[in-house]
Design a protein that fits this description.
This protein is mainly α. The protein is built from 6 helices and 2 strands. The chain has a two-stranded antiparallel sheet.
Length: about 170
């Protein structure tokens, strides 16, 4: 499989992705983002800034697709992603309101201890979800989202189609 085919496979939210592939995708995306931030920081060109934004949007798409594939490997629907984002939004509003009531204006001053505490509390659910996605064992064998991922850590979405069992000719 060529590099372009691999990128397209990862960018497609259908199919499955195991822990090994998710870790590889995460490391690749972090590397790409670090390089984009460095180029963005060093450059004064608006074209480079626009290109960095496009790269970030591509990374966001691939990260979301990988999370959906990983959820599929765990036997869960990809609709958990928007559900989680909604829950995170509500969590952030509640924490922000509580932080402002208990710590006052200091919570809005970037770098203050109150701001750092606030950010750490807001980040608890995304960090917990990320750890769970990386460490939860996937479903062994085929599930409703496709076959078990192969040695690349990915299972193509074509495995999700009805197929004939080669041994006895019955529909699986």
């Amino acid at each position: 499989m060529s590099f372009i085919q691999q990128v397209l496979e990862v960018a497609n939210p259908r199919g499955r992705c195991n822990r090994k592939a998710l870790l590889g995708i995460a490391l690749a995306l972090l590397s790409i983002q670090a390089l984009a931030v460095l180029v963005h920081w060093l450059s004064q060109s608006p074209i480079v800034h626009t290109a960095a934004t496009v790269v970030e949007l591509g990374c966001l798409w691939i990260a979301t697709s990988a999370a959906i594939k990983r959820l599929h490997d765990l036997g869960r629907t990809g609709w958990w992603v928007p559900g989680f984002l909604l829950a995170l939004f509500v969590w952030t509003l509640l924490v922000s309101f509580g932080s402002f009531l208990t710590m006052g204006d200091a919570v809005t001053q970037i770098g203050s201890p109150q701001f750092i505490i606030h950010v750490c509390v807001v980040m608890v659910p995304p960090v917990a979800a990320t750890i769970w996605l990386h460490f939860a064992p996937g479903n062994p064998g085929r599930n409703k989202y496709g076959p078990e991922p192969d040695e690349t850590g990915l299972a193509s979405p074509q495995g999700n189609l009805i197929h004939r069992d080669s041994i006895n000719g019955q529909i699986a």
